[in-house]
């Protein structure tokens, strides 16, 4: 009798337990789909509540911060996934929990950031000029340039072949000439495009996708014409501007990119991913992340992201895949540079050399070919160095605190310049300094004088060394050049002494990946369609520099494909990149991403060049037709990687020059290089690999963001 009562009691307890656990129905996981849980912004986030198979989603209850029932925001998609956009997140810490009946509760900690930012870029630059009215968004409603509501409009592709651009679409009076398009997912739909423009992170964003205005697209019901991927447009130039700017710098960079939209891609851009308006790649990465989140919360989880952009647009792509890997799945840069800071080294060297040739010792340098040999430029006019200095004025625009580059009507420092009352000058020493390092002070920190740390250095650089060894210049030319080339002070004034980098800035330069050695880039397919123009700033050299950095840092260049001077209206390269990334995403093995990149590289993803409109894949033919040269540092004996901003020094070795020097000349050389000459066989001072995913919220140099939060059971 006692055993029977015990058995009955145990049976009843088991039944209660089963009821409490909802009969085996459980919430398996909670995960954010629009962004990492600790990096969300704008007060909302796309979330999936993962249920055990067979669980009825009607029994699920979802709570925000333990009190607000947000279950109604969720719905079950056609594929059975239970997801929704949760709104009402407060700035800072939040929690989201999901449970079934009295069963165990899953919860996920989330951190929300303001729509106007920042998330991980650190304290926002001041002053900042809001300009939403110029983009027809109405006035800013706060100091972060936010507007009351985004602007939405519809456009369409006409069947009239004479209409090459998208035309306004009036839903109340639908036009009769709407074309059809078949996406790369095989869906044939009307070519009607929804475009949204608004404000994020103090910039202006825009994104577009094919959508029927009669059918409201949501993450639960994504637009039929969307292929699940995002095409992001990075734009060029490179100026440290203190303004919001427009989202489109040129018609060629519009989010109304007809070829990609026709294939089914959503397209997006931001005024803060125009490098000519915001030369800070950390802010670029942050903005890209926030815009991607906005797109996902509007139409659904993004399966992969491809990007395109030239010149300053290429810099952003190359820096982001190394410093914030995973934000972009495949990049298609053109007019390529590895980063802005090794480019700045080239530009400042060019500035000193052009000054020397033209104003210091012109009688010694009447032969322009000798000048180009020193600068390791192609012997063409105007030449890379002179283009940087005399056409682009970027030596001044990046390093002169009084350059007016802080606020300029275009993305290049040309045309009329107007100083603003908040800019630095001799009469306004507390004003905003228009230099790269001051614009990026969250990265580099400040010196005791309050100015941002500077990473440029030319101590020990033997300008013209390779030209001397090759017999192209004389010993006296070499010595005169290195005696008189000089450097720049922190206010860009010329000095007889060489420039010495600030030590903390050098540390930050490498740690943050601003000197982009590509050590984290092996997991991203790169299709580099290089515009190769050796007579101006977009010389062929930069792609080869980046490729060799990738090889030395990772041991492989399998993810890098270089195509020179490709016909601009040919999108075959983009299609190749897309197929590559799709195959990688479809590979569900446990292999590393680097292994998958190599495994799924398409057969047609090979180096090539275009000669007279014809594609050529023979390396020797391309090398002969598309030669590359270097920059003043390679002309001074540096390797093609030019990774040492500040070189380690060694005593000069008389025998190493390969030319005869008199004792007087040798003594003169030793007097020039009292601290020693560059030893290019050693890494640069403070040179180290970049640390990925840094936050600058707690100060310059950055701290690792750490692993993404995961849900836990309670």
From TrEMBL:
Q: What is the lineage of its organism?
A: Bacteria, Pseudomonadati, Myxococcota, Myxococcia, Myxococcales
Q: What is this protein called?
A: DUF6351 domain-containing protein
One Pfam annotation reads DUF6351
Alphabetical list of InterPro entries matching this protein: DUF6351
Domain called DUF6351: residue spans: 30-688
PROSITE patterns per the UniProt record, alphabetical = PROKAR_LIPOPROTEIN
